[in-house]
């Protein structure tokens, strides 16, 4: 298909498609004449992925570039590629100095070991969880992660992981991961606040 | 205690305390001399609440004012006061025009009815969930909320609701709600991403 058709089918404007081509986010089409290139389904799929990362994941273009490079590097095993997408979605957390941080980080590493979870030693999510624990401790909240661990484990292993097409095109797997992580995460967060409102009304007997 | 002691105990700087007094977020102390006011535990508790709303909930001052007004209006039942805090934490979502939105919103209202959840008809969380459903549908994601509903219900009714001191000071109940919603929400979100990494490594057999 020509660029105009690619634009119509993807809903991405032509100047934006040209920008993605210049930035290397979208592979060049097949040059079939001096002023004409031909695009196919793989370009459509890539545009879907970029939109998902940009609009739903709200990633900056630099982070999108990292993810795309992982998608294109076919020597990377699928789960490493997915890990890169996951890490791009995770906020960057600066480790803090002091004993409080050391303790929280050791607690996170211990938890992951005890669970037997396969998590990269450098995964930024370890620091993200450590930071959350430090804040909880500073604010005097009781720290009992067990129900959250069990809930997350169950949700992911019984439901969410099956929505990722591990054997399909690499673009599609990353897209499913990003959309699932962000949108089902948002849905769960709203449902949790709704459950809070209802349960507190019930307890107050109104 | 004097303002200097209130500042030391709360970790809030004196100019900031004066700002909260001017804005009406913090009640005036008892005037015991022309240039001296006396503060007590209720002021400390209020400062804790303001910090929780500001630093953990990341609410703008205008929203904090609404929550504080609800805390101070003792004619409001506790669960209405907590609802106001909850709504302040929820992003504002503009209803969209078109049939897609109508359908999603009807689906949300139907879900809440079916569950028998006690949710205010004007709760902004209804629109927030409708928006999430519209995005899922536009992106072609399967919409099956059941496992999320069940998970949220269980987590809230069996664990989280018991961390809210309904019978204690009103400030303390709101503080517990805000801290719990934001920090346990964040903890769950990280754990879910960790579970994804581990489960996808397991499935890929590495």
TrEMBL record, chains A, B:
PROSITE patterns: HTH_MERR_2. SMART domains: HTH_MERR. Keywords: DNA-binding. The keyword Secreted does not apply. InterPro entries: DNA-bd_dom_put_sf (IPR009061), MerR-type_HTH_dom (IPR000551), MerR_fam (IPR047057). It holds the Pfam family MerR_1. Residues 1-70 form the HTH merR-type domain. The keyword Electron transport does not apply. Coiled coil: none annotated. This is MerR family transcriptional regulator. It comes from Nonomuraea purpurea.
């Amino acid at each position: 298909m020509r660029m105009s058709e690619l634009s119509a089918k993807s809903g991405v404007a032509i100047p934006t498609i040209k920008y993605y081509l210049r930035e290397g986010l979208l592979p060049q089409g097949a040059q079939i004449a001096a002023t004409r290139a031909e695009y196919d389904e793989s370009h459509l799929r890539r545009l879907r992925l970029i939109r998902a990362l940009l609009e739903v994941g709200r990633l900056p273009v630099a982070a999108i570039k990292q993810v795309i490079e992982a998608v294109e590097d076919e020597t990377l095993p699928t789960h490493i590629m997915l890990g890169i997408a996951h890490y791009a979605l995770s906020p960057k957390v600066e480790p803090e100095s002091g004993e409080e941080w050391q303790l929280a980080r050791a607690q996170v590493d211990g938890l992951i070991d005890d669970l037997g979870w396969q998590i990269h030693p450098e995964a930024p999510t370890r620091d993200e969880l450590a930071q959350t624990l430090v804040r909880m401790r500073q604010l005097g909240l009781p720290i009992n992660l067990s129900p959250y661990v069990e809930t997350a484990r169950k949700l992911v292993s019984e439901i969410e992981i099956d929505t990722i097409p591990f054997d399909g095109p690499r673009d599609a797997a990353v897209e499913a991961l990003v959309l699932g992580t962000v949108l089902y995460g948002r849905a769960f967060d709203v449902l949790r606040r709704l459950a809070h409102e209802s349960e507190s009304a019930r307890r107050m007997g109104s």
